Write a sequence for this structure.
């Protein structure tokens, strides 16, 4: 289950299926990622080869990420069996 989403566009996509706040070319992939996050209980449930699941280091230690497209990643951490602080970021 998703407990909290930081990115406003991602939250609108998740709650209301509105794509205004995200790139249209990313919408389908983001829907897939949000569905998987919503059904996951631990971060490792997102470990699918096509998502490039990985743990983050440095300032984002404790977060995990999955690839959307190019430099775009959805980052998240898990707390009490739910994804929290879900965000959409451009790595570079």
């Amino acid at each position: 289950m998703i407990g909290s989403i930081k990115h406003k566009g991602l939250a609108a996509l998740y709650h209301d299926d509105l794509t205004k706040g995200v790139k249209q070319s990313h919408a389908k992939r983001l829907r897939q990622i949000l569905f998987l996050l919503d059904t996951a209980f631990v971060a490792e449930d997102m470990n699918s080869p096509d998502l490039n699941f990985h743990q983050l280091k440095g300032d984002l230690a404790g977060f995990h990420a999955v690839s959307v497209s190019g430099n775009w990643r959805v980052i998240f951490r898990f707390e009490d069996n739910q994804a929290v602080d879900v965000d959409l970021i451009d790595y570079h």
